[in-house]
Amino acid sequence: MQKISVFLLIQFLLLYGTFAYAQKMPVQGKIVDSQGVELPGVSIMIKGKGIGSVTDVNGRFNINATKGDILTFSYIGYESSQVVVKDQSEIRLVMRETSQAIKEVVVTALGIEKKVSTIGYAVQEVEGKDLVKARDANPITGLTGKVAGLSVGASSEMLGTPNVLLRGDNLTLYVVDGVPISSDTWNISPDDIDSYSVLKGPAAAALYGSRAKNGAILITTKKGTKGKKGLSVEVNSSNMFDKGFLAFPRLQTEYGAGENEIYAFGDGKGGGLNDGDYDVWGPKFRGQLIPQWDGEYTPNQAWTTTFGDVKYTGHIKPTPYLSRGKNNLGNFLQTGFQTTNNISVTKSGEDYTIRTSMSHSYQKSIIPNMSLNITNFNVFASYNISKKFSVDANLNFNYQYTPNYPDVSYGPNSLIYNVAIWTGADWDVNDPTIKGIWQPGKTNTQSVFAEYQRYHNPWLMTNEWLRGHDKKDTYGYVTGHYTIDDHLNMSLRTQISTYNMLRNEKMPFSAHPYGREGGMGDYREDHRNLLDNNTDLQLNYNYMLGDFVQLSGLAGGNIRIFKYNSNFTSTDYLVVPNVYSFGNSLNAVQSTSFVSRMNVYSAYASMDLDFSKYATLSATARVDKSSAIVSSNDTYFYPSVSVATLVSDYVKLPDFISSLKLRASFAEVKSVPTSETIGTAPFNTITSLGGSSSTNIYGYSLDYGTNYMSPYGGPSYSMGNTYSISKLYNNETSASYTNTLFDANIQPEVRVNYEEGLDISFLKNRLGLNATIFQYLDGPKILQNVISTTTGYDYNYINALKTRKTGIELSFKGVPVKTKDFSWDVLANWSTFKEVYAELPSGQDTYNTFFQKGDRTDKLYGTEFYKTKDGQIIHDASGKPLAMQVNQYLGNMNGDFQWSLFNRFSYKNAYVSFQFDGNVGGVMLDYLHMKTMRGGSNIETVQGAYGVARSLDDQHAGEKTWAGAYVGEGVVVSNGVDIKYDSKTGAITNYDALQFATNTTTTQVQDYVSKYYGVNESNLMSKTYIKLRELTIGYNFPQEWISPLKITKASLSFVARNLLYIYGDKRFKDVDLDQYNGASSSSGLQTPTTRRFGVNLNVTF
Amino acid sequence: MYYKMKKNNILIVTVSIFVLLFSSCSDFNELKKNENLAESVPASILLNNVLYSLNDEPEGMNERWCQYYLMNYDYYGNNRYDFGGGDNYYTTLKNVKQMETEAIGNQAYIALADFLKAYYFTKMSLEMGDIPMSEALGGVSNLTPKYDTQKDVFVQAFQLLETANSLLATEITKGTSITGDIYYGNNLSKWQKLVNTFRLRLLIQLSKKTSDTDLNVKQQFTKIIANPTSYPIMTSTGDDLKFTYLYPSNMYPRNPGSYGYNATRENCSDTYVGLLTKLQDPRVFITCEPAQALLSTYSATDFNVFKGANPGEDQGIMYTKNTNGQYSMINRYHFYRTYTGEPTLEISYQEMCFNIAEAINRGWIATGPLGTAEDHYKAGIKTSWAFYNIPSSGAMSVYFMKQGSGISDASPYNTYSVNVDWDTYYNQSTVKYTGNDNTGLTQILQQKYLALAFHSGLESYFTYRRTGVPAFETGTGTGNNQKIPVRFQYFDSEKTANTANYTAAISQYNNNDDINGIMWILK
Fold first, then answer.
1. What are the angstrom distances between the C-alpha of A302 and each of A297, A298, A305, A513, A964?
2. Nearest CA of chain B to the CA of A699: how many Å?
3. Which end of chain A is more exposed for a tag (fewer CB within 10 A), N or C?
4. What is the pTM of this model?
5. A695 touching B, CB under 8 A?
6. E strands, A179-270, where?
7. Is A878 within 8 Å of B476 when comparing Cβ atoms?
8. Tens digit of pLDDT for each residue in A51-83?
9. How far apart are CA A942 and CA B316, in angstroms?
């Protein structure tokens, strides 16, 4: 039934087009700018007749006119022109730009270019060429700071997906030339990008439906220009290296591995004194004799080592204990390098254009033996079959491949874990024995290292433990355009976006990540295949209603067919070392698989009503029918309305105001349970490999490392009365029923977006300010609500919970100085938002344990110390700080605001540009700090009072009576009264009965630090920082130099990225906040971030 | 060619393409189905799941809260009694309920479901007090189940066990079979014995409620003991409900691979070792090692060489003292040598012997299947000795890790021969049963504590809480103002998702979800 109604709607739209057809002989033409670029949206009027038209995306127009009519062409930012119609049926016109600095056309949803003055919602555009020079290997990370409200948290990991947030929400819709693609952000070549257009919210993106809930990034690729005959070749080469760290673990090198300043190597796995799975709380490096990992094994001789009352006797000959690896991590990391080379060839004729582009990018990681290659091939062709019928096609193939990529997620699989947190300076990363990887006579079976229980030799990790990544992305489309008459044109387009991916892992013998302590190697393959096909039929229309009102817009239908499947297979240990094949599995091979399908049928329409110079009213409507929602409410409708008025066109404003535009919009977007990303084949995680049985699509088959999330967009299958299967005992099959209930009548979730803005420019458009205020009313959501587990279920999916997000975005653009040779351009962006709970699920006065109606949604709760009313930490009788039993409010996770400031100074052919940006406010837990403090490797553990006491602990190590020298700052309860607390708030309920005295009990530093930094409050960092993001010094070679070489354009630039990272509290300068731009409660481990320097050369023939 | 085509023709073509695409998707509702998961499964694989949850692995907080061993390394944990929410078996119970649904026609699964409900609900009640039972597991039909009183939980549990017993009897006669049983190899007779043996355990838990006429604790106990044909109970260790570890799929949590993480970070507790050495009990040689620092004073097989830490000791101090060799580690030969360790007893014959001895001691019954309280007491101890392969008399080899050795060494253990004699042991005044008096009761409970070491989850904590035997030790290291708390808190989700019922439930504890609040069974 639903299906039929969609069909009828489409048919109606088509018929409507047919009725409106009028029989007249058209005058055709094409309008280009001085560069030969086609101008869409140019308004054409027959003077005195009230008949008008606009140009299409190819700059073409049709209008019915008779000989003698005067056509006026007007376009904001260009000088108006008039042409008298004579006998010609084809008019070709070049329009000259006016001297305005602000671009007047932007790309909007479905790739339609519109005049800025007519747009009622927030869109911000960035030119591709601006990013190519100060380039980042990833085409999206370069957008950092360029758009108010868009925050791009670059990943420091090779191939890491940046955290792209628009108004605080994950942005996942990437649209290339009007069609959505499945993107990990690495599968678009920066060299092919002509411009980016950021649609900041649902109002702008409503035509894309659910996927545009959080806005979209539209990318317009370079295409060449029909009518600009000839051949053009462009070559771009960018070469950069990574050197110098911005954020680096802050490590001490005075004490080695061990516990309580005691260490002796026995077998490296618990056989000596604290020689396995140790901390870095070992003895001070004083040259004293201690049995060590590389000491000589003397089976017939026993050596006794003494620490106070502790004696250790073993067969390893003691050697002087010295700080041998003062900068192991720094010495291990190398200079990174990346080179990207692109060549594109464009050939255009009167009725065709074709562009092919080939890019190759090679990145050498700062981690040894790791690299990434990305090859991208793109071809675009457009051909006018007749005056009315044209065809466009585009195909992009992107191939990412690496034999070895890093995985720094916390655990023994992580280089940072092994080198920076849990091992000390008692071994040297460049020691030839360590570099040799294998023990003598045990090549490929037993590695050599300072410890054998938990930690890994870094060379084993990078040279033998290999993780491959091989991903092929193909996307493209074929479009047919047909011009029906002056008012109507139609297009039919089909598009695919597909990838297939293989990731594998070769784990050598003696590697032992979490859950694989057997150390007998493994081989894994993770295959994923996705196909997303969209077919659109679209009708564009454009009419003048009387003299005054112009009606334009489109109507269309879309069919989306989505398919995905994946499988993960692993050996269960290996028989023969170094043979990575499933046939070599010691125990039964383990495997999981996953398949999903989804269809979405949509119809949409948009309408722009131009009330002459007074206002533009735009409306869109879309109806979707999606198979991703289980209930009968699978068909849903969403509208948007916006209005824009260029006040300066009809109100006399003071002279210094060049233009003033006001805009407002409303949109409603609905969405169904889909997931934007997906990991390893879910649902049946392999319990025998340490994974836990999972019923969600984020389930992970392994117990260690990163679950790589690839783009998905398909059904989340979060609701269903189903059993999941696992193998809990003896590989016997076991089943468990879902722990999640759902409302059988669940409705799509709703987001309503209100937005108001003003765009004002001053001093002949030299300065411009865009301001937007937005409000998101989210809900009722599809909420996975926590229910009483006594029902037998943990969650219930219901339509409940409303949140309200409000925010402000300001973008300032200007040319403060402009002379004949010199100009200064400025771009500044500022944005802020906050989100609160507007309505809790019915019957609940609290949500998610702590949250009440009106609370911010990003409040961070964590452990705190018990404190006296004047803020002193309360200690127990043994001198240890007491932690509260209930989590407390620590701060807000989101920053207060983000800002950026971009400056560009040009003098003749040279220019310098740089950008500062940053975040102010917000808090997060520093995970690395917590681990390095508790583990004893942080430099703070040897400084100040800790340092003094630690040295004394070392002098008295092993003494029976030694009770430490560190006295924790704070108080103890002195009158023997029990501390009573409220089980809900954690607050002390009997303050008045307690008496306090200064704490005087001494403890060993390790013991105190481990307790103190186990409490969240001690690792709470501010998220305020500033970055000098990019610096470019460029030079465009003068024509007189390059013309003789038949070169049209040539430029050379020196580029630096991430030059400075300014952060207030040096304790927490071990984490680069750039990557934590969202509401994250804690940092994770990261590869140290680096400065990047390079050269970019661009030549066009 | 296209350009000669009339526009109406093009419209027709495009509309046709669309119609074609739409009509090819006639199975739209089929697409909504998640093909990856089952909508129905055999009851046997659900049984496999719900039985697996019953295993209380012997390395975790349970054994520390029972004060058998202690964690001296702060980074990996502590010995504090910071009780949060108790065990959550509701989702397991939901699977039990699903098993009933899927078991169409096979009453044996229904019988096992009844037992499992009784087991899991009473275990949660013992931890937390009043809990939802009669209204629980209703899914969406009741999102806010009311709390049953602890007494009602037990009343219902006894009804379930009664049904389970009679259903099993019928099905055994009929020759019904099941699969998926990971404990008894699908032997329903053993399950029937377990049902009644477990019922004896529950009745013993109610030792403070013998006067309750709804529960009729004594009468129930008598009924079971008196009618072994209708209510068969365990007759040997072959009837034990135990979890057997397997390599490589289900390794004992302490094994050669985990040695370097834990072995030296776990030392014995004085509560356990102190009792063993006080009783001159040879089990100390099996489960514990000499304190290295005392070896200069005592021989390795002297009871004085075994020393546990007070669980209440500050953990940092305990760590240092352990490094100094002042405490016994748990025996690495016994616990770390293999990947399969020892099976974990969940409900055992030896425990039953002590439970019957206690019932006789308390005068609930006059004699049991083996005779007097002393007979059961002795059987319990002997069974425990046999579990550790301790001979009733003669030489026994014992193994302690050499100082400075690792588990990977060729010969990491020192071997000693110890002479054991049951009669000598039993005839000590501390061990020989003094009769059905308070001292006798303490002896029974002490021996039960020793027999359940590293077994049966929280059972020894529950016994301590009910009887005070053996005396648990406290200090700053145990937290909670140096008191042993007597109940777990409710689950966090109850506070927000079942607020009214939760609030009513904690009203008996001064409106505070207090771990020191006294639940009904302890009053």
1. 10, 7, 10, 33, 31
2. 13
3. N
4. 0.90
5. yes
6. 179-181, 193-199, 216-221, 230-247
7. yes
8. 777 777 677 888 877 777 778 787 766 767 777
9. 19
